[in-house]
């Protein structure tokens, strides 16, 4: 098992080195991903990692279940002592106002912030971003992007660089009264109808279901 892990890690390290070398040569992320054989998102993470990110060890559910039973038989309360949240749920906890959280979830969030001090800064920047979107104001938009770029958080800085590429379009998306929601809704309706009638109806029936009746 250990030998197999080392072989996989070595192959992954070689791909990582290839990504870094191509990045130094000025290749784009899409070109690097196609040449090395990885996803473009992986290229972006490796470029900002500063080293090969080690893969996390998967949790052993049978081991956790055995510990759960052991703690329960020992008179402990494992349901409270062993509460785990996914990254998506943890992000939701960080962005939820304290008054909307239960005591246990607020305690779990506070412990996470104590364990990861950088989360304070991430939470502050994320709340500022959400406030600007909610209030539809772009007055401090450039200042926020500059703060993100200087934050020392690689993924947040990458997000700021991406927004700065087309800053005018982002400002219009925040402040303009128009929305492409109805357009996206019609596209979703067409795709759903196509899936429902796949191999059941021809073009004429699909056309009749989509286009309005002539007067």
What report would you give on this structure?
By secondary structure, the chain is mainly alpha-helical. Among the domains are: 46 residues; 58 residues, no CATH class; 26 residues, no CATH class. It is built from 13 helices and no strands. The chain is extended and about 70 Å long. The model has no long low-confidence stretch (mean pLDDT 79).
Keywords:
mainly alpha; extended
Shape: extended
Number of discrete helical segments: 13
SSE pattern = HHHHHHHHHHHHH
Computed structural class: mainly alpha
First-last Cα distance: 72 Å
Computed over alpha carbons, the radius of gyration is 24 Å
Low-confidence stretches: none
| Helicity level | 55-70%
Largest sheet: none
What is the number of strand segments?
A: 0
Mean pLDDT: 79
The quaternary state of the protein chains shown equals single chain
Tell me the β content: under 5%
Short account of what is shown:
By secondary structure, this protein is mainly alpha-helical.
Topology:
Layout: H1 2-24, H2 29-36, H3 40-47, H4 61-73, H5 78-81, H6 87-95, H7 103-115, H8 118-135, H9 141-149, H10 154-164, H11 167-175, H12 181-196, H13 203-210
Helix pairs in contact: 1-2, 2-3, 8-9, 9-10
């Amino acid at each position: 098992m250990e030998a197999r892990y080392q072989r996989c890690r070595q192959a992954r390290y070689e791909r990582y080195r290839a990504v870094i070398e191509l990045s130094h040569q000025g290749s784009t992320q899409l070109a690097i991903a196609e040449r090395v054989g990885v996803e473009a998102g992986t290229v972006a993470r490796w470029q900002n990692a500063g080293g090969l990110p080690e893969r996390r060890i998967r949790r052993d559910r049978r081991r956790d279940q055995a510990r759960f039973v052991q703690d329960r038989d020992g008179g402990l309360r494992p349901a409270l002592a062993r509460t785990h949240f996914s990254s998506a749920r943890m992000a939701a906890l960080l962005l939820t106002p304290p008054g909307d959280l239960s005591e246990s979830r607020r305690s779990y969030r506070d412990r996470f912030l104590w364990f990861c001090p950088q989360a304070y800064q991430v939470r502050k920047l994320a709340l500022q971003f959400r406030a600007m979107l909610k209030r539809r104001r772009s007055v401090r938009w450039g200042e926020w992007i500059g703060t993100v770029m200087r934050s020392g958080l690689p993924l947040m800085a990458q997000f700021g660089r991406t927004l700065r590429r087309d800053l005018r379009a982002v400002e219009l998306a925040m402040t303009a009264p128009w929305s492409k929601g109805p357009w996206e809704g019609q596209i979703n309706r067409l795709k759903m109808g196509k899936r429902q009638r796949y191999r059941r109806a021809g073009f004429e029936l699909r056309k009749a279901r989509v286009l309005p009746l002539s007067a």
